[in-house]
Each structure stands twice: as C-alpha cells, then as structure tokens.
Amino acid sequence: MRIHVVSDVHGRADALARAADGADALVCLGDLLLFVDYADHSQGIFPELFGAARATELVGLRTAGRFDEARAMSGRLWAELGGDPGEHIEAAVRRQYEQIFAAMPAPAYLTYGNVDLPRLWEDYVRPGHRVLDGAVVEIGGLTFGFVGGGLRTRYRTPNELDDEEFARKVEAVGAVDVLCCHIPPAVPELLYDVVARRFERGSEATLEAIRRTQPRFALFGHVHQPLVRRTRIGRTECVNVGHFRGRGTPFALEW
C-alpha cells in the first residue's frame, strides 16, 4: 500500500489534483482555505475583498504581534465594505471550497484544520471522500485515527477548540497504527516555525496518547516551516508532512 498525505493546502487546487498520483489513497489533514498568503499578499480571501495593499498592512501588523491593531483595522474595513461580514466571508469561503473539493482526488480521507469551516464541508464532499474527526478507519490493514482542528490561540482562527474538547477526540480515537492530526504533539522542536520565528500550539493530549499507545506513525501539519520535521517518541515516528501550498508535493507512506 502507498498513501499520500497532505496538510495545509491553503488553496493549492492545481497541485491537489495531482496529489494522489501513484498512490492508493490520499489523506488530507486540513487547512484547505487561504485567508491571506504571507508570501504573496495578493492571494486569499482578505485581498480578494480588500486588495493586496491592505493585506500587506494586515500581515505587517500580525507579524509584529500587534493583533489588537490588526483586528481594529479589519473592523474598519468591514464597516466600509458594508453588509454582513459573515455573508461576505462565507461567499468567499464557498468559492474556495468549490475549487478545492472539485480537485480533491478520490479515495480521500480528510479531517479539518484550524482555519477550516467544518459546517460547510458536507456541501462539497464528493463520492469517495470520507471526513473523519475523532474517528478511526482501516486502510490497507492498518488503523488510522483522525483528530481535526486546532487549539485556542491569539490568532482566533475559525476552528480552534478548548483543550478539553480536543482531548476528548484524541481519547475517542484510542490506540491506532497511524495517528493523523492537523496540529503536532506538544514537542517544542516540532512547534517552532523558523520563518515566522514563533512557536505554534501543539497538543499535550496527543503527546500523552503517543507515549501511551505508541502508534507506528503520528502525522500532522500546521507548522509550515518547522525547526524539525521528524522525531521519534519511543517507537513512534512523528512526521510533519509538509506545507502543501508551498511544496506542492505530498508525503508518501508505504507498507
């Protein structure tokens, strides 16, 4: 069996359409949407609505850690745009999801990222797509457990969960051969982004589950440019499968 794994697609429908070439199935660990591209400020929902110059201003404030100012600026722009901000965002999100799910290969096993809107997925998944969150599936004789979403942060992305809710999903998965999460376990070298120069949040519950159950693999994304992409916890190989928007290539798992 050969499985291709992607995470942090962030709008890369072109590369996603080819992501399962040569594989028996695709696993997608979420973050399908692109709100703003920190490398190209003309790409994403925010510049689509407000222009690249405003996106550059937003990125600058966020990069400097000035989140209150970034939210205030966004508030002014929404007020100028008029109408219900939620309606504008949902329309833009739906346009992206339509493109992404049309390109998504099948069969594919998917879970949510922290920037995704889970309530909309059911409108776009196609035959051969299976969405799992806090659930287990067998693929080629191995058990794969899926835990989607992220934890609460100052970024306030749409699909952030309380620690207790996230831990309940990890517990529901239990012992599996391959543990698939959007966010990494709480291991510092897996959490530090060397380009953004900050630590992202990882899961203590996932780390404890790995130590206790020792799956063959723990696969995740979320941190785009990690200090370390792979490490071992006991017999478990922990792997950041890569920033798919930037790399355009999947991680391959064979057995």
From TrEMBL:
User: In this protein, which residues make up the domain named Calcineurin-like phosphoesterase?
Assistant: 1-226
Extract the SUPFAM superfamilies matched here.
Metallo-dependent phosphatases
The organism's place on the tree of life at top rank: Bacteria
Which InterPro entries would you find in this protein's record? Calcineurin-like_PHP (IPR004843), Metallo-depent_PP-like (IPR029052)
Q: Which GO terms describe its molecular function?
A: hydrolase activity
Taken from the record, one Pfam family name reads Metallophos
UniProt protein name = Metallophosphoesterase family protein
